[in-house]
Amino acid sequence: MRTPVVLAIVASFGLLLGTTAAWWLGAQSVEPSGRGASVGDPRPGFRHADLNGQWVEAEAFDGRALLVNFWATWCAPCRREMPLLQQASERYPEQLAVVGIAFDEPVPVSEYVSEIGVSYPILVGGDDVMATQAAWGNTSGGLPFTVLVDRSGIVRWQHLGEVKADELAEQLAAWL
User: Fold this and answer.
1) What is the CATH number of domain 31-175?
2) DSSP per residue over 91-103, as a string?
3) What is the pLDDT of residues 56-91, one digit of tens each?
4) Nearest in space to 102 (alpha carbons), one of 125, 82, 118
């Protein structure tokens, strides 16, 4: 009887130690170097996989305004604002590139965007997405987070929280 108790204590200690190490190492990997981009700064880069596993970089959207939205399927405000972002993508196809970058797993992301009919590019990742989000100016890690970059590559608007139609329309009118 004594052996199972000792094994349970050792296993529990190992699990606690492993969880603590993973948390600490993970937290270290998403800390931005510096403060992240602010309005008026040049656009940071990104490189994330799309839902087909292909790498997509920020430079692929050069020459158009770029609306980057950081989101997750488990984030209710993120889900509510996605139809608005889809409308913007459809309304300004030549002037504006909309890109969603999900902090999530590919399967639920793929299922959700198919369900609601999102056609703009969706990228997905984990800690790499959090690091990108911090570089783009959101060091708190809150979701959703949306950034508008003008066609010359300058950050013009950053918004933490759910984007409302009037806010987005105002920014697009000013920068497209």
Assistant:
1) 3.40.30.10
2) H-TTTEEEEEEEE
3) 999 999 999 999 999 999 999 999 999 999 999 999
4) 125
SS3 45: coil
Torsion sign across C-alpha atoms 9, 12, 17, 18: positive
**Distance separating alpha carbons of residues 87 and 97, to the nearest angstrom:** 12
Lookup: tokens for 98 = 């909309």
| Angle, alpha carbons 10-14-19 (nearest 5°) | 150
Count of other CB atoms within 10 angstroms of residue 53:
8
**DSSP-H helix ranges across 30-159:** 76-91, 106-116, 127-135
- Give residue-wise pLDDT tens across range 140-161: 999 999 999 999 999 999 999 9
Give the pLDDT score at 35. Answer: 80
The domain ranges of the chain are 31-175
pTM > 0.70: yes or no = yes
